[in-house]
Amino acid sequence: MRSVFITADNIVSPLGFTSVKNIAQIAQEQTGIALHSDIAMSASPFYASIIKNDTLEQAFRQIDDEARFTKLEKMMLLSLQDTISKASFSITNKTALVISTTKGNIDVLHSEKSVFSPDRAYLPVLGNKIKTFFGFKNDPIIVSNACVSGILAVAVAKRLIQSNFYDNAFVVSGDIVSEFTLSGFNAFQAISNAPCQPFSKNRKGITIGEAAASVAITTEKETNEVVEIIGDGSCNDANHISGPSRNGEGLYKSIQSAIKEADIQTENIDYISAHGTATLYNDEMEAIAVNRANLGNTPINSLKGYYGHTLGASGLLETIVGLHTMKNNTLYTSIGIDELGVSEPINIIKSKQSKDVNTFLKTASGFGGCNTAVLFKKHNI
Amino acid sequence: MIFHNGKEIVIKDSSLSCNEFLKQVYKEHVNDYAKFFKMDTISKLAFLAAEFICNQASVLPKDKGDMAIVLSNNSASLDTDRKHQDTINDKNNYFPSPAVFVYTLPNIGVGEISIRHEIQGENAFFVFEKFNAKALMQYSTALINAQKCTHVLCGWVDVDKDQYDAFMYLVSKDGQFKHTEENINTLYQKN
After folding, report:
1. What ipTM was estimated for this complex?
2. Closest partner CB to B105 (pick from A102, A187, A233)
3. Which domains, and CATH codes, for chain A?
4. Contact B82/A109, CB-based, under 8 Å?
5. Which domain holds residue B121?
6. Of A135, B11, B33, B39, which sits 20 to 30 A from A13 (CA to CA)?
């Protein structure tokens, strides 16, 4: 099968509107999570990672009229605009548009609060806004597969290109913080009353966040240093719809599937970017799956302490941070970690450190028993 | 109505609501899986459609890890999203429930099918403007090419404002119809 590379990327988050700005903030252990008092979203104050509306609108005005678009659309368009401008290929009839989101424009469902039509909540309507804005020739392929959506979208693009259905692809992911998701996770008693602490003994649940992220994927090696997508897997636990498997079965199988395809040994994996939502069950399940895969000694972090859980964007957002981890040969701190609180040992990154990182593993898991693992390798040519 | 391999196997009064229809089909054709009643409408529809395919052992792979599930629709989980939204619109009548919220994702039905039939293979849920045989064919082919599976349970499961539509088919190395966009569209229209 032909090789597939990621050649341009962007993150739009509270930490900045380019990947470079985001990485600079992460290097300083700056978080986007803050305490918010917004009665339109929650009756009581809550921790979340939220993009300031005026900052977003100001940035968006550089590319279009901001009043025409919802917050999520602005985030996703702004992100993709930057990635498209950096990619060396242009959009043709063999360019795929892959979009991932869990909830899309879910805030428009509250008709009294939204100035947009409730039809904007249909994901194909969102997809067509993005398609039309940039003049894509093909209809969007929208991945909505719970919290693995962002990383699964990368695997989907790679697989379609490797089977020669497309030459290249742009992938864009996004989700917003909304009353809808806050109230739902609150009903699950899954939301932490302090900034989330992935893998910590003191973790109390998730913190929600919002972000958009995008990448360009192609078979052409464009620069001296390129990142290849070398393997992937996305397997179901077949165990429970809202709780992860106790033995990490689906995640373990996903990792094995990615490793088998990449044809590498586990000791060649230099870094793992975990899902690490900071719920009791998720983090425990991941520690078990990682150990079953003999990756217990591999440096690992969760980026949820910087961004919160950005749902359908998280997998792609965190992949991009992983790409820059390889580029900068720097492992970034898993903020929120104090005392390790999982039953199996994992090598959590407690402080920023220099290390040669040539291969990394991104994982995610979500409701519906879904899991995804994707392996990336850096090449210097 | 339900068609299976081109034959009408269930015909009900067209005035039945979606949930009444699904309940009757469940009672007549399944009736041994109480978890069915906890599911949202779209998961019930996906679950029942899969029953008619997954209960024929002869067409399934020996190792269920070799079976992928790839489903799609237009409205994602909006039918259930609206139900969750109704529980939070009014601050004086505020009652969000985890039992509803967990179904506000379109891929939960894939999870329900996976649990029922112990399928731990590849999954994906796609959202398209309309039934997209080309995209389903391409992704299923890509999965098989990449040796991620030998079989793909593929289809379209949509529920929106009491309109519902499900179509499922199994892709494998052996079969009577070649796996092409045209054949998928023909079967979708015929069934």
Report:
1. 0.97
2. A102
3. 5-218 (3.40.47.10), 225-380 (3.40.47.10)
4. yes
5. 2-190
6. A135
